[in-house]
Amino acid sequence: MAFTVRLLLLISSLFLVLESLFAQTNSGKVDVGASLSATAGNSTSWLSPSGDFAFGFRQLENSDLFLLSTWYAKIPDRTIVWYANNGDSPAAVAKGSLLNLTADSGLVLTSPRGVQLWKSESISGVVAFGLLNDTGNFVLEDDNSESLWETFNNPTHTILPGQDIEKGGKLWSQQSETNFSKGRFQLRMRDDGDLVLTTINLPSEFANMPYYASHTTSDSNSSTAGRKLEFNSSGYMYVLRENGEKLTINEAETVSARSFYLRATLNFDGVFAQYSHPKNSTGNVSWSVVWSVPENICAMTVDSGLGVCGYNSICTIQDQRPTCACPTRYSLLDPNDPYGNCKPDFIQGCEEDELTVTKDLYEVQTLRNTDWPTSDYMQLKPSTAESCNQSCFEDCLCAVAIYRDESCWKKKLPLSNGRVDSGLKSQAFIKVKKGNLALVPQPPNPDDKKRKNQATLLRVGSALLGTSIFANVMLSAIVCMGFFFIYRKKHVRPNQNVLDSNLRSFSYEELKEATNGFNEELGKGAFGVVYKGILQIGSGVPVAVKKLNFVVQDSEKEFKTELSIIGQTHHKNLVRLVGYCDEGQERLLVYEFLSNGTLANFLFADAKPSWKQRIDIAYGVAKGLLYLHEECSTQIIHCDIKPQNILLDDYYNARIADFGLAKLLMMNQSQTQTAIRGTKGYVAPEWFRNLPITTKVDVYSFGVVLLEAICCRRSVDMENVSEERAILTDWVYDCYLEGDLDAIVDNEMEALHEKTKLERFVMVALWCIQEDLSLRPTMRKVVQMLEGVVEVHVPPCPSPYSRAG
């Protein structure tokens, strides 16, 4: 009996202990020293007292990465409302990463190897505990329960009831529904008191004019300016003015926060919307939209840059959501990004039109109530639909013409802010190449010109019959001389290669005038100085004019021969040469102007470009080099591949510059070696070993550029990184051996989301930078390996001799 009583007391005590532990676990309070681990199949988290919210690691969909985040714990889709991020990228981590709650730094996130990846910033005080409360706010507090840091003060894409956005505060959209990287849309409470929605010209933080504004700025009366955006616990959202007045953001009936979960999210497509979800739902109930702004995101116009859809795309509202589509004969640059840019599936432009023999090049596709309102370059009024169509058809600059209300707006690529709107009552005439025409322009046939000249002389001869004898004699002599010169020209032709390559010859004065006296310098390299110029053709054509530094004298024939080879190279990943000047001691080259500058400026700027952009650029460089090495009429070895010699067009496609200049300037090996040694980090070892220079020097340089694009840092950096990381090629190989791909991309979620591709690209780069040139692949094999159509084997150490011992 006594044993039974003791057993009952023991069970009762144990029950009280378990109840106490359960109460403590369910209080939302987290003690210093507590930790969470990113573990597949066991998504550890800390819960709020009600269990409505969870804070911890969420494994991302179709990925082996985990996101430190806060989410709704009781609904099926476990919607994320906050996540840790490092500026542009979310702090997505690998399996085995740890989150620790510390007294001095608060929340600290580390990789499986102990490298710090993220921490709660601006902690001024000693953390006593953490608390996830029932509002969804995770707070770090001191011994006096004063807040030291909280997620509500560091919002990402969502705000919850009870959360405010003060002046200077902002929300960022995601890049897509599944990609948590920084997107192109921002909600900001500006310092002037106005709540605005804007697009951002990534990778910078330059904000375009708002497409939505609350208009609560301070004019003559500063008390009416907005002070903050409030989302109160009852579910009302308004701008609170300095004088205490409230400007309601939306007049829709508010849903009760007692019965529904509420959130307001800036979606990846730029729509700011409030959502509701019943708390006691059964089954797979989804979120409902309570209200949203703007009402029609397709109708919003950005003063510069993109709308919700990419360049050359068309936005349509379906089921209150925007969808994007490419016009006929256009296709997505990235098939996996339906909201991205569209590109024409043909070559269009004045040069291409002039070089093509067939004049019946185009056909017109007509769309109703479609417009790209910010891409005009000319308006014709009055006009008819027929004359509008014809005007665009005959204009090599015109890609689309919009006819509405007796007006015609002619537009050129790229087209932005495209939308369908039934209220437009317009016609869009889209000019596209006919489907059966070759995409590559055809040069004029010299035999056609010869036959034309012969026919002309024969027509002149036939006219002799009706003239006097003296005139007949004179005209006969002229005809004979004409035939003589035609056939003499056939056998004794001066150097016509430059003319045959369709390059234009400029005088020095023309180029001096075009560059305003060589005033605006774009860049300087081993081959010369490049200046910005405007050719006075039509409304002005921007060009880049390169003044060559050194040219072997008395080499006019060789100069024009090599120039003709460059002029005959046409590829989408090469900068096009449009003309030249060969006058006295002056030798200049005229290139098309590319507005987005060099790859160096793009990669090494403060704002990090997206992983997708970087690998697309690297692939473009590879395709351009393959063309130079194997596909153009004469093999060209570039000899100086580096990010400064790779330019970016309007769509951020890679375009290789300065190809053919090494041979054009008739530099021997020692001269080239001297010129290129200044480009440290990109030079193949054979330059210094008196070995023959082959296409493999370009393969080596490409491997270095590929690593720079992957890591988004310079190949040699003695100032900003530790000594063991200063030489990029060595450091990447060490990381590869250790299996630490996360470090190579600085834990960038977008890159780690495609870990197989990342590893493949790193392996290809390591093969390219082998010191033994026989081990380096050709550019054709490089392209195939990047595409994944050829297996990439494990690369050996690139510098076995320098690492020996």
TrEMBL record:
The keyword ATP-binding applies. Belongs to the protein kinase superfamily. Ser/Thr protein kinase family. The keyword ATP-binding applies. ATP binds at K547. It is found in: Membrane. GO terms for molecular function: ATP binding; carbohydrate binding; protein serine kinase activity; protein serine/threonine kinase activity. Keywords: ATP-binding, Disulfide bond, EGF-like domain, Glycoprotein, Kinase, Lectin, Membrane, Nucleotide-binding, Receptor, Serine/threonine-protein kinase, Signal, Transferase, Transmembrane, Transmembrane helix. Residues 1-23 form the signal peptide. This is Receptor-like serine/threonine-protein kinase. Pfam families: B_lectin, Pkinase. Its main location: membrane. The chain crosses the membrane at residues 463-487. It catalyses: L-seryl-[protein] + ATP = O-phospho-L-seryl-[protein] + ADP + H(+); L-threonyl-[protein] + ATP = O-phospho-L-threonyl-[protein] + ADP + H(+). Residues 516-790 form the Protein kinase domain. Its EC number is 2.7.11.1. CDD domains: B_lectin, STKc_IRAK. It is a single-pass type I membrane protein. SMART domains: B_lectin, S_TKc. GO terms for cellular component: membrane. InterPro entries: Bulb-type_lectin_dom, Bulb-type_lectin_dom_sf, G-type_lectin_kinases/EP1-like, Kinase-like_dom_sf, Prot_kinase_dom, Protein_kinase_ATP_BS, Ser/Thr_kinase_AS, SRK-like_kinase. It comes from Rosa chinensis (China rose).
